[in-house]
Amino acid sequence: MPEHVPETMSRARAPRPEHIPEQYVHEIDMYALEGIEQGYHEAWKNIPKPDMPDLIWTPFTGGHWIATNGDTVREVYSDPTRFSSEVIFLPKEAGEKYEMVPTRMDPPEHTPYRKALDKGLSLAQIRKVESKVREVAVDLIDSFVSRGECDFSAEYANVFPVRVFMALADLPESDVPTLSRFAKMMTRPEGNTPEEMAKHLEEGNKGFFAYVEPIIQARRGKEGEDLITVMVNAEINGERITHDKALGLISLLLLGGLDTVVNFLSFMMIHLAKNPQVVEELRADPLKLMRSAEEMFRRFPVVSEARMVAKDQDFRGIELKRGDMILLPTALHGLDDQLNDDPWRINLERRGISHSTFGGGPHRCAGLHLARMEVIVTIEEWLKRIPTFAMKPGAQPIYHSGIVAAVDNVPLIWSER
What Gene3D superfamilies has UniProt attached to this entry (predicted)? Predict the structure, then answer.
C-alpha cells in the first residue's frame, strides 16, 4: 500500500443495503479510527457531530450501524428482545465464529449460565482473594520503584491483572504469552476483509478451546476452590454443565481476565500522570480513593462490542432490519456531556455517574467486582510507594482500537527512592 494512502482505504467496503438512506453513511473504521494517534477516546469523541442521528452506518467491517451517543448505547444494551447477543463481535462474519458461553445467548437460555458465573465471581468470592491481589500489586511495584521509572503498560498493566487471574484459575503464569496472543486475535483480529478477520478470530477461539480442553477434563468431578473447578462442576438447570458449554464458559473467563483491565489501567495512569491535582486529591482522602473506581471506569471505557437487530423495527425514526449489526462504543456513553457534565474531567465528587463500561442489560460484565478491586488496589499501593509521578518527557503512547482498545508505550518517571 502506498504510504500516503490511509489504512482504511485498503479495507473492504460492504455495499449499502437498500433500507439505509445515503445520508446515514459515514466512513468509520472501528479498527483504524481516524486521529487515534491523539488518543483512543479522543478519536471516538471526534465522530459525533451536532444534529447527527442516533445511529449512523459505515461500510467498513462488513457494514454496520454505530450508536452515536450514550443514551442510544444504553438503550440497545438493555433490551435483548429488540437487540440480540446472537452476534456481538464485528465484522459479523467474525462474530459468527465466536463460540464463548454465554455471551451469544439471550434470556432465558442465558440465565442459568449467568448465575454460575455470578456465583464464581460474586463480591463475597472476590473479597476472599483481596490479599492475593494486593500481594501481586506490591510485588510488581517494588520490582521497579527504586529505578525511578518504568514502562507502566509493559511492566505493570500487562502483568498485574493477568497474574491475579491466573492465580484465581490455578493456571501457570508461563502460559500467559500464549493466552494473551489468543485474546488479541479475538479482540483486535487482523485482516482487510471480513473473511480474513473471521479466520483470525476463529483461530484465536480455537486456540482457547484447545488450551482449556485438557484442563476441563482434569478438573471435572474434582473438589477445589479455583475458578475453573467451580465452573466446570456447576449445574445448569439441575444438571452438570455439558462439555461443549464448559469449553465456551472457561474460555470466556480467560478472554475477559486477560484483555480488559489490562488495557484500562494504562489509560487511567496516563491521565493521572498528566493531572497531579487528581493524584493529590486521591492521596489526601482514602475514602475518596475507594470511591474513585466508578469515575475512572466512566472516564476510560475500552470496549466496543455490538448487538444484532432481533427483528424488523423502527428505532427512533430509523428503519432497522433483522440481522443488522449495531456497534456500541462505550466511550460515547461515559464521555457524553448530556449524561455526564464536563465528561473529560475526573470529578471525584461526581454523583449519578452514567456509563456502559461494563456493558448493560443481562450481559453486564460478571467480572466487575474483580475489576473494581484491581483498580482500587493499584491506586492504593502505587501511591503508597510513588506519591508523585509524571509521563517521561517526549513520551508518545501508541493507541489501538478494536473490540477492546489498547495502549502501549506508557513510560512513567518519579523521584528515585
Answer: Cytochrome P450
List, in order, residues 6 or more apart from 372 with CB less than 8 Å away.
293, 294, 297
Percent of the chain past pLDDT 90, that is, above it, reads 71
- 354's CB contacts (< 8 A; 6+ apart) are 70, 74, 298, 333, 334, 336, 339, 340
Residue 15 lies in a domain: no
Count the alpha carbons within 13 Å of 347 in the hemisphere toward its beta carbon. 14
pLDDT exceeds 50 at position 303: yes
Residue 213, burial from CB neighbour count under 10 angstroms (0-12, 13-18, 19+): middle
Q: How many residues does the chain have?
A: 417
The structural domain count of the chain equals 1
Has residue 145 got a pLDDT over 80?
Answer: yes
Give the CATH number of the domain where residue 88 resides.
1.10.630.10
Rounded to whole angstroms, how far apart are CA atoms 265 and 155?
Answer: 12
Is this structure's pTM higher than 0.85? yes
